[in-house]
Design brief:
Elements: H1 10-14, H2 22-28, H3 33-50, H4 57-70, E1 88-90, E2 111-113, E3 119-122, E4 128-130, E5 132-134, H5 136-143, H6 152-155, H7 160-170, H8 174-183, H9 198-202, H10 233-236, H11 241-266, H12 291-311, H13 314-323, E6 337-341, E7 344-348
Antiparallel strand pairs: 1-5, 2-3, 3-4, 6-7
Length: 368
């Protein structure tokens, strides 16, 4: 398994609110693969979606983010609908051969609930065909794993969910943020804002600049590192691969010509003082500070430790943001989800739009 965090797009799928509670999500949809690994995030999405229906949505959302920041949000009230007692699971009807379903006067299949609470139908010969089975025990065992003190940081595997929910916080109403600032110090929580300048410290050693490489080195930087790079880590996240390849290629050529011309100047004692020494950082002479790059690599572990200590759980987000472009596993595939809409089973896509069956106005028979 790769240690590089992956960009999978799973948070987008988990946050689709196909039902109002986790138990209804399990029983009324066939999108249950996310329940096993992300049941708490499914409940969290149900909680967040319910805020828009509150009498005071601003205060309700501020309460929500306060619980998220304190890492003790109770999701159990969105695990089970209080009115649900028995859960029925739809099964395929097994109709015996040479028998047909009994229909009522309106032309609909004759169905009713038997003494065991299951939905059944009958054939014209009186054979009872079960259409559902009792799935209460299975549903109950799954919703028992919903947390009553959930932490996004602890529940997240690689930082992608953390990134998704912090983006949701950034998109919240300004009044919500103002109310939250009055209640607590945001900068001590997972909701703190991270400046792009943190990226310089986090992986500055990966992008050696010209001033960090020896003037006689025309090709690469230190061992195993290509360079120099004409841009920094923040720009690297915002330009595509072909553009970076073109810029690096042109920069290497210009830098090589410059260093080749500079070598003759370094041999001249009139131009280069005797005290020119790369061991002394940022001196006012022509010596490049190529030893500084070695110092960056040696101290990077201490820098990362200080960042992790200062940012806490947000450091996981920073790591994910810095590497997600390298390991993108998102896949776009057609998705069909069955869900109950007003007592009928409907097929919807991942955006909960109803899938329409298109009927052709004519067939090739009309051409004959």
């Amino acid at each position: 398994m790769s240690l590089v965090p992956s960009k999978t797009g799973v948070p987008e799928l988990v946050a689709n609110t196909l039902a109002t509670s986790v138990d209804f999500h399990i029983t009324s949809t066939n999108f249950n693969k996310v329940i096993g690994a992300y049941i708490n995030f499914v409940a969290l999405a149900q909680y967040y979606d319910s805020l828009k229906y509150e009498c005071d949505p601003i205060t309700a959302e501020a309460d929500f983010w306060e619980l998220v920041a304190n890492e003790n949000i109770d999701l159990t009230k969105f695990a089970k609908n209080p009115k649900a007692i028995t859960y029925l699971k739809k099964i395929e009807a097994n109709i015996p051969s040479n028998e047909t379903i009994k229909f009522d006067s309106a032309g609909n299949p004759y169905t009713y609930i038997d003494s065991s609470g299951n939905l059944v139908t009958e054939t014209t010969d009186g054979t009872i065909i079960p259409l559902t089975k009792n799935d209460t025990e299975n549903v109950q065992s799954k919703i028992n794993s919903v947390s009553n003190s959930f932490s996004i940081e602890e529940g997240d595997k690689n930082g992608e969910f953390l990134h998704w929910w912090l983006n949701a916080y950034k998109r919240s109403h300004q009044k919500v943020k103002e109310l939250l600032v009055e209640r607590m110090n945001i900068e001590d929580t997972i909701l703190q804002e991270v400046s792009e300048s943190i990226g310089f410290l986090f992986y500055q050693h990966l992008y050696p600049q010209s001033r960090y490489t020896h003037y006689a080195d025309e090709n690469t930087g230190d061992e195993g590192v290509d360079g120099p790079f004409p841009y920094n880590s923040i720009i690297d996240d915002k330009i595509d691969f072909d553009y970076k390849k073109n810029v690096i290629g042109l920069s290497k050529r210009v830098d090589a010509i410059f260093k080749r011309n500079m070598q003759s100047m370094f041999r001249s004692p009139e131009i280069t003082p005797i005290e020119a020494n790369p061991e002394l950082a940022h001196r006012e002479n022509l010596a490049t500070d190529h030893v500084h790059y070695k110092r960056l690599i040696e101290n990077q572990s201490n820098i990362n430790e200080n960042i992790n200590t200062t940012l806490g759980g947000t450091a996981k987000l920073l790591k994910w943001l810095s590497t997600n472009n390298l390991n993108d596993k998102q896949k776009t595939v057609p998705t069909v989800i069955e869900t109950v809409v007003e007592n009928s089973m409907e097929e919807v896509d991942i955006l909960t739009n109803k899938i329409q069956t298109l009927q052709r106005m004519f067939s090739t028979d009309v051409l004959r």
